[in-house]
Amino acid sequence: MEEEDEEARALLPSSPVKAGRGASNTPAAPGALSALCDPSHLAHRLLVLLLMCFLGFGSYFCYDNPAALQTQVKRDMQVNTTKFMLLYAWYSWPNVILCFFGGFLIDRVFGIRWGTIIFSCFVCIGQVIFALGGIFNAFWLMELGRFVFGIGGESLAVAQNTYAVSWFKGKELNLVFGLQLSMARIGSTVNMNLMGWLYSKVEASLGSAGHTTLGVTLLIGGITCILSLVCALALAYLDQRAERILHKEQGKTGEVIKLTDVKDFSLPLWLIFIICVCYYVAVFPFIGLGKVFFTEKFGFSSQAASAINSIVYVISAPMSPIFGLLVDKTGKNIIWVLCAVVTTLASHMLLAFTLWNPWIAMCLLGLSYSLLACALWPMVAFVVPEHQLGTAYGFMQSIQNLGLAVISIIAGMILDTRGYLFLEVFFIACVSLSLLSVVLLYLVNRAQGGTLNYSARQREEIKLSHAE
Questions:
Q1: Rounded (10°) angle between helices 139-168 and 173-206
Q2: Interacting residues of 66 by C-beta distance below 8 A, sequence separation 6+
Q3: Is 26 left (phi over 0), alpha (psi -120 to 50) or beta?
Q4: How buried is residue 32: exposed, middle or buried, by Cβ count under 10 Å (0-12/13-18/19+)?
Q5: Which of 93, 84, 126 is nearest to 285 (CA)?
Q6: Which of 60, 248, 359, 378 sits a CA distance of 20 to 30 A from 138?
Q7: Which residues of 217-235 are buried (b: 16+ CB within 10 A; e: fewer)?
Q8: Does the model's pTM come out above 0.70?
Q9: Cα(188)–Cα(275) distance, rounded to whole angstroms?
Q10: Which of 140, 146, 135, 143 has the alpha carbon at shortest distance from 216?
């Protein structure tokens, strides 16, 4: 305890001491620990931010490993597209439930530090099992690996956000969330463009392609998950140290989940749920199957197809913070969501019915995907009371994962039996249903006073007027 108190005193600003008659006026020497080690200093918090950003890098990098290696997985494991898409479905299944309990486990059971470490371990173990499934030519083992990976993946994102609130609550928080999202998208982009090349290098080293080459490639990709685990351990140490020195509290998710609240959800909230599910099922499963689509329909090389398939994430990395600021300033959330959905519909129509360069359609998809995330998710907070926010967001993520799990399987079946044109028509139908829901939401909101289209400034003015 004495050592801990001594360290804390060394980091605190030196207070003036009553000097004796012969005392010198020279300032005291700086503390033993540098600014980088001082939890109250900006340099230390930037170090924590760096660790937070890399915390989710491995998870996002490995999530789309199947998409980056679609051809290789189907060929080496001798599976059709329906079975291939189960690798995405198995990731989503545990998160249909964990969206409700991930925050509870972090707040009440493990705590933020142990919770982050445990979920990082699930991600690492899941990726290792996934890779071993390739090495031992056991597709069921790959499915099990994706299930275990899914248990850790989404809950790790909750832990990452909790750390961000704990360390950066205030004016920096939106920027921190933007940077974390950008790093996640960079992880997805690096995966899309690296794994195919890595497979070819492993193939050259082993002398032939096959399930062993696939497994070794996935195992090497899992190094990024170990990097995330190291970041989780470092964050736990620094957070515990900051708690000791600054008397800082452990981060809490702030989620309060009461499933009985579901019966009180309003019509606008249910429409937001429908928009969310119908939109995202036309984006993530498409990216999961996109690489082969671009090689078969447009004749691109494997590397070029991976680059086009990753452009959605490339655009999302810088544009998400920018669009977030735009929506904050202007309001008009429903209008921005409408623009995003219409643009996505146009993108899928271009890909389905034209031979235009797919870079155009995919850039449009990247912009609309970034804009929708910034405009849609905050609307939940505008239509439910604060005490129901945890339940509402949990339910939204739950049905999103349920939709992704089911649609991933359906998309694989359509592709096996009907081909890419029918698959694109199916995605167009999903986005059209999302568009219809946006129009209904606009009409319902207008009838109820149009509050969802208020800007941040208007909301602040209303809040101040109510306070008076």
A1: 150
A2: 73, 84, 87, 88, 288
A3: beta
A4: exposed
A5: 84
A6: 60
A7: bbbbbbebbebbbebbebb
A8: yes
A9: 24
A10: 135
Which residue type occupies 114? Answer: W
**CB-side exposure of 290: number of CA atoms within 13 Å?**
29
Q: How far is CA 58 from the centre of its chain?
A: 11
- Report CA-CA distances (Å) from 402 to 213, 257, 289, 398: 32, 18, 19, 6
Decide: helix, strand or coil at residue 357. coil
| Distance (Å) of CA 206 to CA 74, 75, 200, 211, 213 | 19, 17, 10, 11, 7
Q: What length does the chain have?
A: 468
Give the whole-angstrom CA distance, residue 77 versus residue 79.
Answer: 6
User: Which string of b and e fits 9-31 if b means at least 16 CB within 10 Å?
Assistant: eebeeeeeeeeeeeeeeeeeeeb
Mention every residue, 6+ apart, whose C-beta is less than 8 A from residue 336. Answer: 323, 326, 327, 330, 371, 372, 374, 375
Is 398 exposed, middle or buried, given 0-12, 13-18 or 19+ CB atoms closer than 10 A?
A: middle
121-156 burial, b if ≥16 CB within 10 A, otherwise e?
ebbbbbbbbbbbbbbebbbebbbbbbbbbbbbbbbb
Tokens found for residue 455? 């800007």
User: Which tokens sit at 114?
Assistant: 């142990």
Q: Which amino acid is at 39?
A: P
**Residue with token string 């490993």:** 65
* Phi and psi at residue 384, to the nearest 5°: -125, 150
**Dihedral of alpha carbons 12, 18, 22, 24, sign:** positive
What Å distances lie between residue 271 and 146, 148, 267, 389, CA to CA? 31, 32, 6, 16
Tens digit of each residue's pLDDT, the chain (468 residues): 444 444 444 454 444 443 443 444 444 334 445 766 767 777 788 888 899 889 989 999 999 999 999 999 999 999 999 999 999 999 999 988 887 777 777 777 888 889 899 999 999 999 999 999 999 999 999 999 999 999 998 888 888 878 887 887 655 666 777 788 788 888 999 999 999 999 999 999 998 889 999 999 999 999 999 999 999 999 999 988 888 887 766 666 666 667 777 788 899 999 999 999 999 999 999 999 999 999 999 999 988 999 999 999 999 888 888 888 888 788 888 999 999 999 999 999 999 999 999 999 999 999 999 999 888 988 888 888 877 777 888 888 889 999 999 999 999 999 999 999 999 999 999 999 999 999 999 999 999 887 887 776 776 677 677 666
The kind and range of the H/E element at 266 are none
